[in-house]
Design brief:
heterodimer, A: mainly alpha, 77% helix, flat, B: alpha/beta, Rossmann fold
Chain lengths: 374, 281
């Protein structure tokens, strides 16, 4: 029985005598999911396309000589090609293992849950088409810039030049990222808290609504960037002015949506809570706010977007550090590769923040799963 | 357990308590008596002339009594319940619970609405715990939550989210949320109105046994004649809006009652004709 289980794996991969499947059987002595997996190998074309694409990208980079661009050759071309080769090898290993394990393990486990290793492989399978697409895009980029010069310097630069920027400028880029995040964090925190409290206040109390609503109506639609010149001379520093503007940009959508969330809570919820002995404070904390929370998150998503706009503009115009500042600074030196590098970093950073917000929402609004289609 | 000296309902003479149906060894003294005295109510309308919904309603509920309010839908029965719950003050007249007028909601009078109105962001257990939490006694009394879940048979669904429950289970959770407060008066606003007919029959007998085990007073609004006959000791019939009390009918039948009981059939005919539907029988 053991031997029979071993055979197909050995037949398929005779050059791998100590494959994980085989060792799982010999060590444990009984059929593990891995043992079942050894019986079936599934060839997934899209999995295998990714190492191929990366190998092709590596070949283009290493074998096709760079177009002369009027100065010494682009640096890090060789390193880029070698890096692509290493990645291609990693994808090949993952594709090979994924063909063995993922399907079999899904079949053998009753709960449908995968072991951590199989989960990595399943994630690879899901991402494989994108991994392939990225290699194709990088190859196109490399061909259009370094290899043929169709997109020529100084405005365009090959991917290898980004490696150069990241390796030589990482201290400054790191510093700029930290400053941007700190500024953004302060502004969004203030704006989120004030906007939330304001929204709850307007939604709950008629008197607060009477005073706050017209102000919100007038100031809210004003683009915060329009206030930039004003705030830069009112506030003691461009830093505090930017914090204020980012807070303003975040607060408006958060306040409006929190308000609409609180105002939209069905009257029956309050009736039920009141007959159960709830105080006014309990109604706000335990009924109004949880009921409004889905809306609050919509407001936060919008506020995040607005705050990204404001911080970049503020850094371009007044604040003397941060990624926005780095963009204009590198443009001033016609250092376009640096600009691309900063743009990519910025996009990763901001999308990371949005992902964090998604994560927080999924945690807090877990009760919505099954009632709403996300 | 029942000690007359602790009873808040001192205005009930002992002979009335002794006259209770035989299956009660004693009427629970702690249950609430409600006196609705000449209550009228109206709603404001955009045109300015208020829309009258209740007209000079007088109604007494004795401690531990099960009273059903029956009337055409939209007549104003539910408004009366809201007034008794203390969610709104009446325009005129007074409502007295035991010895004190009702001015605000209180956990001694719990309402169960037609919709279960469970809070979707709380698990079933946290929904049931809501009253104790609001009164600030949850930490000390959390055992009562499990007790209430057990009473309605939802002990295995404590961690479920409301949207995972069926209609009947959700209404049971709403009942547990009411029972956990040990109410003196349970106010039921067509609680079974939206359930399918089989679940409804099942829930009617559960409601009955909960009442008989716990002994609180019950005020049930329904437009289902059979439901009123199966459950209530006394049925109060309302006119169309503005609601006035047309008549009262005592159902002197022991529990459990049977749907095909000849007395019930006669009473049903009687009630329908008082509601002006005698010809439809």
């Amino acid at each position: 029985m053991r031997l029979a289980a071993l055979l197909p794996a050995a037949a398929f991969a005779p050059h791998l005598p100590a494959s994980p499947a085989a060792s799982a059987i010999t060590h444990s002595g009984q059929k593990t999911p891995a043992a079942n997996a050894a019986r079936a190998y599934r060839f997934v074309f899209s999995d295998w396309l990714s190492p191929l694409a990366w190998s092709a990208f590596a070949a283009v980079t290493l074998l096709w000589p760079n177009q002369s661009a009027g100065f010494t050759d682009w640096a890090y071309t060789k390193e880029l090609g070698e890096g692509a080769l290493v990645l291609a090898a990693i994808w090949a290993v993952l594709a090979f293992l994924a063909g063995f394990f993922v399907v079999a393990e899904r079949q053998s486990s009753q709960t449908g849950k995968l072991t951590p290793g199989a989960r990595v492989l399943a994630a690879f399978s899901r991402a494989a088409p994108w991994i392939t697409a990225i290699a194709v895009l990088l190859a196109l980029w490399e061909i259009l810039t370094a290899k043929t010069g169709i997109l020529s310097p100084p405005f365009f630069a090959p991917p290898s030049s980004l490696i150069e920027v990241y390796l030589e400028e990482y201290v400054r880029l790191l510093d700029c990222s930290v400053n941007t995040l700190a500024l953004l964090g302060k502004g969004v925190l203030w704006g989120g808290v004030v906007g939330f409290l304001l929204g709850v206040g307007i939604g709950w109390s008629r008197r607060i609504g009477y005073w706050a609503h017209p102000v919100l109506r007038l100031i809210g639609p004003l683009p915060p960037t329009a206030l930039l010149p004003l705030t830069f001379f009112i506030f003691p520093s461009s830093h505090s002015a930017s914090v204020f503007l980012i807070a303003l940009a975040t607060a408006f959508p958060v306040a409006i949506l929190t308000w609409s969330g609180v105002a939209g809570v069905h009257k029956h919820y309050y009736d039920v809570a009141r007959t159960l002995g709830a105080s006014e404070w309990f109604l706000i904390r335990r009924v109004a706010i949880p009921a409004a929370l889905p809306q609050v998150f919509v407001g936060l998503f919008m506020g995040f977007g607005a705050s990204f706009v404001v911080i970049v503009v503020a850094e371009m115009l007044g604040v003397k550090s941060g990624l926005g500042w780095y963009l204009t600074w590198s443009q001033g030196y016609a250092a376009y590769p640096n600009m691309y590098a900063a743009l990519i970093l910025m996009s990763l950073l901001f999308s990371g923040l949005i992902s964090l917000l998604f994560f927080a929402r999924d945690r807090l609004l877990v009760w919505q799963k099954g009632t709403v289609k996300w | 357990m029942v000690n007359p000296t602790e009873s808040p309902a001192l205005n009930i003479p002992p002979e009335e308590i002794n006259a209770a149906p035989p299956e009660f060894h004693a009427r629970p003294y702690w249950a609430s008596a409600i006196h609705v005295q000449h209550v009228s109510h109206a709603f404001p309308t955009p045109e300015g002339t208020p829309l009258p919904v209740l007209e000079d309603v007088c109604l007494d509920i004795r401690p531990g009594e099960f009273v059903a309010l029956l009337g055409p839908s939209g007549c104003g029965k539910s408004t009366l319940l809201r007034l008794i719950a203390g969610l709104e003050p009446p325009l005129s007249g007074t409502i007295i619970q035991d010895d004190a007028p009702i001015v605000r909601p209180d956990p001694s009078r719990i309402v169960v609405f037609q919709d279960p109105t469970l809070f979707p962001w709380r698990t079933v257990r946290d929904n049931v715990a809501l009253g104790l939490e609001a009164q600030g006694v949850l930490k000390k009394e959390s055992a009562r939550v499990d007790e209430a879940l057990l009473k309605v048979g939802l002990e295995n669904f404590a961690k479920a989210w409301p949207h995972q429950l069926s209609g009947g289970m959700a209404q049971r959770a709403a009942l547990a949320r009411a029972l956990v407060n040990n109410p003196k008066l349970l106010i039921l606003d067509e609680p079974l109105g939206k359930l399918d007919s089989l679940t409804r029959i099942e829930m009617q007998s559960e409601l009955l046994s909960l009442w008989r085990k716990n002994g609180f007073s019950v005020l049930l609004v329904t437009h289902d004649v059979e439901e009123a006959l199966m459950l209530a000791e006394r049925i109060v019939i309302f006119s169309p809006r503005p609601a006035r009390i047309l008549s009262e009918i005592s159902v002197d039948l022991s529990y459990p009652r049977h749907r095909d009981d000849t007395v019930l059939t006669a009473l049903r005919h009687e009630i329908l004709s008082r509601l002006g539907l005698g010809k439809n029988w």
